[in-house]
Request: fold
Amino acid sequence: MTIPSTTLNNGVEMPLLGIGVYAPRQIDEVRPAIEWALEAGCRLIDTAAAYGNEREVADAIRSSGIPRSDIFITTKVWNDDQGYNRTLRAFNRSLERLGLDVVDLYLIHWPIKQYRHETWKALEKIYTDGRARAIGVSNHYPAHLDELLTEAYITPAVNQFEFSPYCYLPDVLDYCRHKNIQHEGYAPLVRGQKQNDPKLVVLAEKYGKSTYQLLIRWSLQHGAVTIPKSVKPERVQENFDVLNFSISDEDMALMNTFYDNTRVADDPRGIQ
Reply:
């Protein structure tokens, strides 16, 4: 199975479907989950310093035997490490834990007001020094990006934010498309909270897929890089078995109406 990719605004190719490794119950679940995902065709792994599992990501990649150049690795600078010099030091620590000289994508995890510009300047240096193939942000909504772009020399390549039919904000997607920033959706499965939503169940039965697969497919059809998380082998496999069907325009429009602001993380609209 070959997973399609998208071309970022700097020409770098990024897979559209990958695995997120946020906060599994036990750290020892990370390595096997990634190994199962790689076996299923995954070539995008999304981690972060705050997840505390960058070393486990490195171990899984090393044991897979897959060439490093074939795997797209994202990590992020955490809030406590933001600011110019602190970000540079945090990036060095992430590289050491990942066993890498270059990361594919480095993101600002959250928009911390007093450090936004200094942190982005550090990411621009990391990028111009050739130590990250692309740089971007996470959990940034239009107001945060408008502020960032007043001083940025480089437009973020990616904006990663929570994305499912239940927290679907078309204005955020439209903003990213207008600025040529690739949108990436985390928590597409809403951590199972909507697994049995009757509206979703009816549609899943129509397509002969699970509700989880339908949520992933919805995200992909919005053009979002999508990073579902699971640590169960059968679920990991299922998450990547979503390329053999399409949701109709009518059903996509219907799912777009499911919004009820259900979230698993903080709402960035509350961050000034």
Notes: Residues 13-262 form a domain with the TIM Barrel fold (CATH 3.20.20.100). The chain has a mean pLDDT of 96. The chain is about 35% helix and 15% strand. The chain has one domain: 13-262.
